[in-house]
Design goal:
By secondary structure, the chain is mainly alpha-helical. The protein has 20 helices and three strands. A hairpin with a 2-residue loop joins β2 and β3. α11 crosses α16. The longest helix is centred in the N-terminal third of the chain and has 31 residues. The radius of gyration is 23 Å and the shape is globular. The structure holds zinc ion. Zinc ion binds next to α10 and α11. The site of zinc ion (ZN) has 4 residues, from α10 and α11.
């Protein structure tokens, strides 16, 4: 076999897979934004056909032989091609390890689980969901043991979202975080500082909010020739490739901060995808390296930049221009305080920056116990409510606002939740090191986010999946991941807001 020929085959394979992914992403984006309601059944059939076609293009003897051959010749290949081959082989082994019959059965299970979950959440009927949820956890456990029989099942699942992450590392991370965080939340609760936020919930017409979104994207330096924003029930971002990134938001006429922060959050994801190296296009490396690093970028813009006083001071004149009536009796400082008001609550997606990781800890504890077989799905509401009481001090009134609130488990994403908290912690550490080189406060105050974006592009974005999450952190910080920056960041910020000193 000729090496050059096989390298070409490998590049062609990735291009074909990219084409299928592109098509499926377009279909998904369309379905979430503009497709008519009745289209869902046919879309399911079409997506099924495309998924199967893509599976066969990837999982077959010829591809396996090619990957093995190329892995034997890595010394003759350039660095990027070596990474491509390594990651393809890893993905191949994962896919091929699961018997086709079980793969099909799993897809059906997930489809069923999502439907049952939707109804169960609507009707506040956890009992109907428990049996199928148990099956989803069992199936994931089994899939993990197929993929890597010698490793702990939860580690295998975590690795799918955050390369090289393990339960051991996460236990240590959350252990370090828990005590200071719970203490800080309690201090904030006991503070006498009253924050006014009534103006966030005035009437904000969608048209004005759309104008505001466009302004936020401009401030963030998002290239609107390569990225657009649509509207969907739940905001998300999907990067088809670096020249075609799609964001969405959701407008709530009675809550201006809701869409505002979803735009900034999704904008952070979009900046990552828009700045992936040109040379990685049509390869398996042309995407963010992990969920945690992706979240570090969205949360960096949403919270660290977007909820800073400097940022609010900068954008507030424009806000008052767009929302002339709604914000005439409000100062920038009041607005800054309002979007940082902290209150332990029931719903993760509505949680403030301070209490957010506590919501993740609840889910993490439950996932661990479920995968270890130490609890059963039917026991989860009780456990959930107990943990919410313990970590957040709130009483869960019903399962719809408790254990049924998130879609992740019904979608089979077990091991995903920790990425959100890791993202916040990575962001705080990255900020610390960015400040050694840049006057971050001054740049934000001047609305000059381009310099910040360039700093991140140079150390994170351009690499796509060339580097692991650990390597990305080293690249930004010249040290490995340390959670104490996150704790310090929260302590400093909230001590000031709630006058805790
Ligand atoms: Zn996100």
């Amino acid at each position: 076999m000729k090496l050059r020929e096989q390298v070409e085959n490998c590049k062609l394979l990735q291009k074909k897979i990219s084409a299928y992914e592109y098509a499926m992403n377009v279909i998904y984006y369309d379905s979430a934004t503009v497709a008519p309601a009745e289209s869902s059944e046919d879309r399911g059939i079409i997506m099924g056909i495309l998924t199967e076609e893509m599976y066969h293009i990837f999982v077959n003897d010829e591809v396996e032989k090619m990957l093995i051959f190329l892995l034997d010749h890595t010394s003759e290949l350039d660095e990027q091609t070596v990474k491509e081959v390594e990651q393809l082989k890893e993905a191949y082994d994962r896919q091929a390890a699961i018997p086709v019959k079980e793969e099909v059965a799993y897809k059906e299970l997930i489809n069923q689980a999502e439907n049952v979950w939707q109804r169960a959440k609507r009707d506040n009927d956890y009992e109907s969901f428990a049996p199928v949820l148990q099956k989803v956890f069992d199936a994931n456990k089994k899939r993990a043991s197929y993929m890597k029989p010698d490793e702990k099942e939860y580690d295998v699942l975590l690795d799918l979202f955050e390369k090289d992450m393990t339960q051991e590392k996460l236990d240590q991370y959350f252990e370090e975080l828990k005590k200071p965080l719970v203490e800080l939340v309690q201090k904030v609760q006991n503070s006498d500082v009253e924050i006014r936020d009534d103006f966030l919930y005035r009437k904000y017409p969608v048209e004005q909010q759309r104008e505001f979104s466009a302004y936020l994207m401009e401030v963030m330096g998002i290239d609107t020739e390569r990225c657009i924003i649509g509207e969907s029930e739940h905001p998300f971002t999907t990067g088809f490739n670096r020249d075609d990134v799609r964001m969405t938001t959701h407008y709530d006429e009675e809550n201006v901060a809701d869409s505002m922060y979803s735009v900034i959050h999704e904008g952070g994801h979009a900046l990552y995808e828009l700045n992936i190296g040109k040379g990685l296009k049509y390869t398996c490396l042309a995407k963010g390296t992990s969920m945690g690093i992706h979240e570090s970028q969205s949360r960096f813009f949403e919270n660290i930049i977007g909820r800073s006083e400097n940022f609010i001071q900068f954008i507030f004149p424009k806000m008052q221009e767009i929302f002339e009536e709604q914000l005439q009796d409000v100062t920038a400082h009041e607005f800054y305080l309002a979007v940082n008001k902290s209150q332990p609550s029931l719903i993760r997606t509505e949680a403030d920056e301070l209490t957010y990781s506590l919501h993740i800890m609840v889910r993490y504890e439950i996932e661990k116990l479920m995968i270890a077989g130490e609890v059963k799905a039917e026991e989860l509401p009780e456990l959930w409510n107990k943990l919410y009481q313990e970590y957040l001090g709130v009483e869960v009134p019903d399962d719809a606002r408790g254990v049924l609130q998130d879609t992740h488990w019904s979608g089979g994403s077990i091991g995903y939740f920790p990425s959100y908290s890791l993202g916040s912690a990575y962001g705080a550490q990255i900020l610390h090191y960015m400040k050694k080189e840049l006057d971050v406060d001054g740049l934000v105050a001047a609305g000059n986010l381009k310099v910040i974006q360039d700093w991140l592009a140079e150390r994170i974005y351009k690499y796509g999946s060339m580097l692991t999450p650990e390597e990305i952190i080293e690249n930004c910080c010249s040290e490995s991941f340390q959670p104490d920056y996150y704790i310090k960041y929260l302590e400093e910020k909230y001590s000031k807001i709630y006058e805790l000193i």
